[in-house]
């Protein structure tokens, strides 16, 4: 799939963009380059490849330690201070008007 100048003009109009001719040519080139990459990826035979739920699944049997920061509170609880400007609060929760019947 590739686009032409008319397609770029239409997309720019829909996006409410005003592209100069040189910008339009550059966008046309970049978008068509993107479509070329997509076509290359689609050409790869993936039949028989089981989808992964997570990239770490590719390391079958390997124990991988994910480097995550410790799950600790870094700021004190300031709920009361944050809720002072709220129009309505009950038992530590913001009260909002019902918007869906």
Question: Care to describe what's here?
Answer:
The protein has 101 residues and is mainly α. It has a domain at 5-42: Histone, subunit A (Orthogonal Bundle). The chain has three helices and two strands. It has a two-stranded antiparallel sheet with strand order 1-2. Strand 1 (89-90) and strand 2 form a beta hairpin. The two termini are 46 Å apart. The mean pLDDT is 88.
Keywords for this entry:
mainly alpha, Histone, subunit A, 101 residues, two-stranded antiparallel sheet
Task: Give a short overview.
The protein is mainly alpha-helical and 101 residues long.
What is the rounded Rg?
A: 26 Å
CATH architecture tag of the domain at 5-42: Orthogonal Bundle
State the shape: flat
Mean pLDDT over the residues: 88
**Strand numbers in spatial order across the main sheet:** 1-2
Compute the number of strand runs. Answer: 2
Summarize the main sheet: 2 strands, antiparallel
Strand content: under 5%
Please render the helix and strand layout as text:
Layout: H1 5-14, H2 21-42, H3 79-83, E1 89-90, E2 93-94
Antiparallel strand pairs: 1-2
């Amino acid at each position: 799939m590739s686009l032409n100048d008319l397609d770029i003009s239409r997309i720019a109009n829909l996006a409410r963009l005003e592209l100069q001719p040189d910008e339009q040519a550059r966008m046309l080139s970049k978008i068509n380059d993107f479509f070329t990459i997509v076509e290359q990826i689609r050409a790869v035979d993936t039949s028989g490849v089981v989808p992964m739920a997570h990239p770490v699944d590719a390391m079958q049997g390997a124990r991988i330690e994910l480097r995550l920061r410790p799950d600790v509170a870094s700021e004190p609880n300031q709920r009361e201070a944050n809720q002072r400007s709220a129009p309505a609060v009950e038992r530590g929760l913001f009260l909002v008007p019902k918007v869906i019947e």
